[in-house]
Amino acid sequence: MSMRTAYVAVYETFADWEIGHLLVELRTGRFTGVPWTVATVGESAEPVVTMGGMRIVPDVVIGDVQPDGGDLLVLAGSGQWDAGGGEEFAKLAARFLEDGVPVAAICGATAGLARAGLLDERAHTSAAKEYLQATGYQGADRYVDARAVIDGDLVTAGPDSPVQFARAVLERLELADEPKLDAYEGVFHRAEPAAYATLVG
């Protein structure tokens, strides 16, 4: 069985810490037993620099990515979303969702999906309801005040919830059961030493 692939969108100033927890668990499979391939996707082949100053050379360009070639699309926040950019990545997200392939968006990326109309009919969360309402989207009545929200193939979270974002994506991908997911949050969010045994068990 070939490894499943997570496509990770990379663009200038993307918020590396927002997706760090998730990517480590997917790539290593250290708690799930299922390692994934993590492939970075850029608008071009040019390197980008993250908000934390790390330089990343995209593995593939957006035009070469097909939903049926991957198992997840991950979108982090960045300055581009708040400047009204990221349209090509929002279009890619729309294609993934149309094909029934999960999309995980955190922080500013949720605003990009809101602008593209992808949150109008789906339960979702973000940094704050007002933040998304500023996009002029039609989905305010589907906004949920939670750390992370799963609705079908879409997972969303706010910038303060990278651990809950990772947990929700692992849940949606069925990579861990409820006790293990709770232990994951216990270790990385609540700093509970006792939860570690469940996590590695």
Automatic annotation (TrEMBL):
GO terms for cellular component: cytoplasm. PANTHER family: DJ-1_PFPI DOMAIN-CONTAINING PROTEIN, PROTEIN/NUCLEIC ACID DEGLYCASE DJ-1-RELATED. Coiled coil: none annotated. This is Putative intracellular protease/amidase. Transmembrane segments: none annotated. The keyword Iron does not apply. One of its GO terms (molecular function) is peptidase activity. GO terms for biological process: proteolysis. It comes from Kribbella jejuensis. Residues 5-171 form the DJ-1/PfpI domain. Pfam families: DJ-1_PfpI. The keyword Hydrolase applies.
